[in-house]
Design brief:
The chain is of the alpha/beta class. Helices cover 30% and strands 20% of the residues. It folds into two domains: 103 residues; 255 residues, Rossmann fold, CATH 3.40.50.300. It is elongated, with a radius of gyration of 22 Å.
């Protein structure tokens, strides 16, 4: 296909078309899902963008009828591609969520398969370079009552000194409960899959990363233990995982150290020293910050070179998100930290409030630098955390499809960091993820 990049492929005996469309259909890039019969013969195709179904084709049929025909148990495999030069269609067939609901009510979507294999998903080529994308079309939702987020100047730039320090990416948000820790874990795994040596630093005193990995009690010391002590003990605190290119620095050991209970001004320099040492041991360090942009988060940010904001696609979080850039610009040395971008999380295509929040961010200006990849709210996140695993290593229903989105986000992050490289497929050993 001319002007197209293959980003995902697999067997429809192991992935439902319903789940594939939910995962890829919210992207702001033109996306084609081609369905194939045995021997790779095309059966049909669906074109989607920004939660809209642009067109569908099944054999000689085209339009809404063809869309529903493609849910029959005929196709054998699928390929997802990003289109750089998409065809033009007169009008979309409708919203993806409403069409999927109609297909589900009609009984077109078969039950999910029970046998899922670890090595199915393959990326044949990295996604295209990140490009500025227009806001979603107005018809993606009823006309919103949106009041744009406060206008902001362009993103701050790094100084030459920060460029030489290595890449330390803070994952932060003004509001708690936005899925920041889950995003950090799965993004760290996806970056490691791309061949990058990655360290995930838990800077939240609550130690959310050990909870996600079901590894409470398995760490003897962590980041907060090192702030008041010898940062040369870092190698002892770093924990290996089942992925040889990913390590985790927990927040602390079994007991909360004084540095976690009572932040002090001197800890600003402690975080600078600690994160600088971490950066020397990897290609990129992801720092899972505490909720909010002040207090301990402000101290941690002064040791980072980049910030990734996590924007929950709902109105309360949207109304407070302008604090993200305000807090970054209020740092003592704001020029040392670059806004890498904003990841939209917990998006719900059937929720008007979620769509309005999404559109507000898209219209807010260049300062937030939203990524093209949008992450939906999905039960698989909670189910994977019960297993103590990242999505890519989990076998719960929908996990592997969602992991594809983190592959896409990792490609955007690594490109913006200047660390772009191919993804490498692997099979994880059995047992707990944190070794």
């Amino acid at each position: 296909m001319s002007g197209a990049t293959v980003v995902m492929q697999g067997s429809l005996s192991e992935f439902r078309l319903f789940d594939i469309l939910q995962v890829v259909g919210i992207s702001r890039q033109h996306t084609l899902i081609e369905l194939r019969l045995q021997h790779r013969t095309p059966q049909g195709a669906i074109w989607v963008k920004s939660g809209q179904v642009l067109n569908a084709r099944c054999g000689a049929d085209e339009g809404r009828g063809a869309f529903f025909e493609l849910f029959g148990p005929v196709a054998d495999s699928f390929v997802v591609v990003r289109l750089q030069d998409p065809p033009r269609f007169a009008e979309p067939l409708g919203g993806l969520s409403s069409l999927l609901l109609e297909a589900s009510n009609a009984g077109e979507d078969p039950a999910p398969p029970s046998d899922v294999h670890e090595s199915l998903l393959q990326l044949e080529a990295p996604p295209p370079p990140v490009r500025a994308a227009p806001p979603p079309p107005a018809r993606a939702a009823p006309p919103p009552r949106a009041v744009p987020l406060r206008a902001v100047p362009p993103a701050v730039s790094r100084t030459a000194a920060s460029l030489a320090r290595g890449r330390v990416l803070a994952v932060c948000s003004p509001k708690g409960g936005v899925g920041k820790s889950t995003l950090a874990l799965n993004l760290a795994f996806a970056l490691a899959e791309r061949g990058l040596h990655t360290v995930l630093v838990d800077a939240d005193p609550n130690g959310g990363q050990l909870s996600l990995l079901d590894a409470r009690g398995r760490a003897q010391r962590g980041a907060y233990d090192l702030l008041d002590g010898d940062t040369r003990a870092l190698d002892e605190a770093l924990r290996p995982t089942a992925h040889e290119r990913l390590k985790v620095l927990p927040a602390s050991g079994p007991e909360l150290p004084q540095a976690a209970l009572q932040p002090e001004p001197r800890h600003v320099e402690g975080w600078r020293q600690l994160l600088g040492r971490v950066a020397q041991r990897c290609d990129v360090a992801l720092v899972d910050c505490p909720a909010g942009m002040l207090g301990t988060t402000r101290d941690v940010l002064q040791g980072c070179t980049h910030a990734l904001g996590v924007f929950q696609a709902e109105m309360v979080a949207g109304r407070s998100f302008d604090v993200f850039l305000q807090a970054l610009r209020a740092l003592p040395e704001p020029g040392q930290l670059e806004v890498l971008g904003t990841a939209v999380n917990m998006f719900q295509g059937r929720s008007r409030a979620s769509l309005e929040a999404f559109q507000r961010l898209a219209a807010a200006g260049a300062g937030y630098r939203p990524f093209d990849t949008t992450l939906p709210r999905h039960d698989a996140f909670g189910a994977a955390s019960l297993e103590g695993l990242p999505l890519r290593a989990s076998q719960v229903d929908g996990a592997r499809s969602l992991a594809f989105l983190f592959d896409m986000l990792a490609s955007e992050v690594s490109a913006r960091l200047g660390l772009d490289g191919p993804q490498r497929e692997r099979t994880l050993p059995p047992g707990g993820f944190l070794l």
